[in-house]
Design brief:
- The structure holds 2 protein chains of 2 kinds.
- Chain A has 2 domains: about 60 residues; about 90 residues, Glutaredoxin (3-Layer(aba) Sandwich).
- In chain A, about 50% of the residues lie in helices and about 15% in strands.
- Chain A contains 7 helices and 5 strands.
- In chain A, strand 2 and strand 3 form a beta hairpin.
- In chain A, helix 1 crosses helix 3, helix 2 runs antiparallel to helix 3 and helix 6 packs parallel to helix 7.
- Chain A is elongated and about 50 Å long.
- Chain B has 20 helices and 17 strands.
- Helices cover about 35% and strands about 15% of the residues of chain B.
- Chain B has 3 domains: about 90 residues, Ubiquitin-like (UB roll) (Roll), CATH 3.10.20; about 80 residues, 2-Layer Sandwich (Alpha-Beta Plaits); about 375 residues, 3-Layer(aba) Sandwich (Rossmann fold), CATH 3.40.50.
- In chain B, helix 9 packs across helix 11, helix 9 crosses helix 16 and helix 11 runs parallel beside helix 13.
- The longest helix of chain B is centred in the middle third of the chain and has 22 residues.
- The chains are: A alpha+beta, B alpha/beta.
- Chains A and B meet through helix 3 and helix 4 of A and strand 7 of B.
């Protein structure tokens, strides 16, 4: 933790003087976190180093969907649950991926495998309704996904790590 | 320099106001009070509620009159059909997610949302609730309860906490439908930097922020025939309670308050002003001691528990500047359960001390673990065992809670006779009543310190330059040949200025008074709502009036205090004083480890 504290102090001092420093700092802290999220103790370090109230830091973090307050898996699978995707079967796809990974969505609509390999979450709409159903894997959008296609992709990701 | 004037038309009436005037205030000049909700004079113009909209010729959209300032030749219409429909719609939208549980709400009949619904003719809300579930109530604090379900997100509490107090305990969290006012990681006020000052509860337009009530516990104690229930009333209650009982703003109701408390069933009606005089005895001697023995200066007063938690949290390295004197509330508790118990022949275990305070932080103070002097006193004498533990002060009620209790028994407050406090813990001086307004502790301490040091009579008792006024006031008082530089601050944002000065080694003062709330206890977080600047000023004038009318105006001349020293405490700062009347503080820090 001590190393991490030094890292965070360095991140804060790099951005400190810039306007809107807090956002850049939080972005960097999240990116450099092992599980791509902002744990409570790291937010305390940021607030203390930057000299801003804890409440303000939490306000910013909870405002932007970009910031994660829960540990994220190495691969992030985003299932669209918009109307178009729903009518084209996004619910069975979501159930399939959750079943494959053996996890269940929490109250925030998110789930991460205990080994932090995968995070699954939903979004309301990608704006790619013509390509429904749509699933994003690590930021890459896959269109007209079928259960077979999905299974293949996830198996490939799982195998890749095991083989490495 | 005179401000440039601007002339405009409001509902066909021509008005001339200074440049920079809010449209809302210009309308007031024209005789129209535009309804508003999230706007809070001098503190917050958030513009989120959309109630204060007006129509301006040449503007496509309706304009929020709290946010915009006047321009030359503006033509404003405050109640066109379009305006009235927009206000009603905006209120209905707010009401959609507000629980309509008015009858059981603490703010029933004193709620801005309720009043607005009445004013704008909203008899039903056309909209269905959009928030799916109820949010948990934050009851972690010993002073304040927050019910986010009743919150309309007006942002007033956030602004008062951030701007007036610079505490930042609460903020807007989340976004959209999930937005709430909350603390860091939603951990609750008790784990936050909240100082319990309760200013948020004063400015909340609904019942979303209220004090943690102890009315039932006090009714129970009064009803218990085995208990002797003593009540003490803070100075600011006598200038606040009347408002909550339907009398005029700032009305002075000392005698009626005493009668009301007696009618309520308290066994003895005592006065925190007695222990305010006691505080002055101890604190002025502490100041003299620090001045003459090279002690830490400036010394800062320690009566305001919101202020105490503030310095413990944000300036823990400066605690040695605090006077070690307990607050008058706590001094009262320890004296009541030792000296008074002994004298009156009452088993201290059967005594319940109830405080009526203008303050929510006093609830927290009464529960501080380092404050249990009476019990320690008796245990040292071998009287009691550990499992018979009791606190010095058992229950703390705000002015608002007392008013509710009085209303509950159906008291005709306006026609009560003028009662008198019981002896001996009911006797006090003009100095003690001053504690209710900003600068008062300083003024009282100076009256006593002057006479103690110079051994001469102080002719002019009133220190105008440190009485109620803007921001930080300072003065140089000549004590004989020696100048004493003092400063007075109210609100924690102002306290910060003085503490930063100390931190930088640039504080020119020997003695500083800090009160957490605007204008001191008269503007305390437990006072009747509303508590505007204008109302606080009226309360202060009543405080000064009460001081002028007191037969004795200097703490050290209070005969009951003199008797207390002669027969019990021996001398200020003596051994017993230290045990019963002084305390220690906790280094808290702003950030958790």
């Amino acid at each position: 933790m001590n190393d991490r504290a030094n890292e965070i102090a360095a991140i804060v001092s790099k951005h400190r003087e810039r306007h809107g420093a807090l956002l850049s700092i939080l972005e960097t802290v999240q990116r450099t976190n092992e599980h791509n999220y902002l744990p409570k103790q790291e937010l305390v370090m940021v607030a203390k180093e930057l000299g801003v109230p804890l409440s303000q830091v939490y306000s910013v973090v909870t405002f932007y969907a970009f910031f994660n307050l829960k540990a994220q898996g190495e691969h992030v699978i985003t299932v669209c649950r918009g109307t178009a995707c729903h009518t084209r079967g996004s619910k069975p796809l979501l159930d399939k991926v959750l079943h494959m990974l053996g996890i269940e969505l929490d109250e925030d609509g998110m789930a991460t495998t205990p080994d932090y390999r995968f995070t699954v979450h939903t979004v309301a709409c990608f704006g790619q309704c013509a390509l429904a159903p749509v699933i994003a894997i690590d930021g890459v959008i896959h269109s007209m996904v079928t259960e077979e296609k999905l299974t293949t992709m996830i198996e490939a990701l799982s195998a890749h790590k095991e083989g490495a | 320099m005179d401000k440039k004037m601007v002339t405009l038309s409001v509902d066909g009436k021509t008005v001339t106001v200074p440049e920079g005037t809010r449209i809302l205030d210009a309308c007031k000049v024209a005789g129209i009070k535009v309804p508003s909700l999230c706007y809070l004079e001098d503190v917050s113009a958030h513009g989120s509620c959309g109630i204060c909209v007006v129509e301006i010729e040449g503007f496509k959209r309706l304009v929020r009159s709290c946010l915009h300032t006047v321009q030359q030749d503006m033509v404003i219409h405050t109640h066109t059909d379009r305006v009235m429909r927009a206000r009603k719609l905006n209120l209905e939208l707010l009401l959609a997610n507000h629980p309509l549980l008015c009858t059981t709400c603490e703010r029933n009949l004193n709620c801005e949302l309720q009043s607005l619904a009445l004013q704008l003719g909203v008899r039903e809300s056309r909209f269905e609730r959009t928030k799916k579930s109820l949010l948990p109530i934050d009851s972690s604090s010993s002073s304040i309860i927050r019910d986010p379900n009743a919150c309309i997100l007006c942002n007033r509490c956030v602004e008062v906490c951030a701007k007036v107090q610079e505490v930042h305990a609460i903020e807007m969290m989340g976004r959209g439908l999930r937005t709430t006012v909350s603390t860091f990681f939603d951990e609750g006020l008790a784990s936050s930097v909240c100082t319990n000052c309760g200013q948020c509860s004063l400015v909340c337009p609904t019942g979303a922020i209220t004090e943690k009530s102890h009315e039932s516990e006090v009714f129970d104690a009064i009803a218990d025939p085995n208990l002797v229930v003593l009540v003490q009333t803070a100075p600011a209650i006598r200038v606040g309670l009347g408002e909550a009982m339907g009398l005029g703003e700032g009305s002075l109701v000392t005698g009626k308050m005493v009668s009301a408390l007696r009618t309520l069933g308290f066994d003895r009606v005592f006065d925190t002003q007695f222990s305010a005089d006691l505080t002055i005895m101890e604190e002025s001697h502490e100041l003299i001691h620090r001045l003459t023995s090279g002690g830490t200066l400036p010394m800062i007063t320690s009566c305001s528990p919101g202020w105490i938690k503030f310095i413990e949290t944000f300036y823990p390295e400066q605690l040695e500047h605090l006077s070690s004197c307990k607050s008058p509330q706590q001094m009262f508790g320890s004296i009541a359960k030792t000296y008074y118990a002994e004298r009156a022949g009452i088993d201290p275990r059967k005594i319940r001390v109830v405080s009526i305070m203008p303050c929510t932080a006093k609830k927290f103070e009464a529960g501080r673990s380092e404050i249990d002097s009476a019990f320690s006193y008796w245990r040292e004498q071998g009287s009691f065992t550990d499992d018979e533990y009791f606190c010095d002060v058992d229950y703390v009620l705000t002015t608002r809670e007392l008013a509710r209790m009085l209303q509950r028994i159906g008291i005709d407050f306006a026609h009560l006779e003028e009662g008198k406090f019981d002896d001996p813990l009911g006797q006090s001086t003009g100095s003690a009543v001053l504690f209710g307004a900003t600068g008062g502790v300083m003024e009282a301490a100076l009256r006593t310190a002057y006479e103690t040091i110079t051994k001469t009579t102080l002719d002019d008792l009133e220190f105008e330059q440190i009485r109620i006024g803007e921001g930080i006031r300072e003065a140089t008082i000549m004590i004989g040949e020696t100048p004493l530089k003092v400063a007075v601050a109210n609100t924690l944002a102002n306290a910060r200025v003085l503490l930063d000065q100390i931190q930088e080694g640039k504080s020119p003062y020997a003695f500083i008074e800090v009160m957490a709330c605007p204008d001191g206890c008269i503007g305390g977080g437990g006072q009747p709502i509303p508590s505007t600047k204008e109302i606080r000023r009226k309360r202060a004038m009543s405080i000064y009036e009460e001081d002028r009318g007191m037969p004795i105006r200097k703490s050290h001349e209070n005969p009951s205090i003199q008797e207390l020293y002669t027969s019990f405490l021996v001398q200020p700062l003596g051994h017993l004083s230290h045990q019963l009347l002084h305390t220690t503080y906790v280094k808290r820090g702003e950030y958790p480890d």
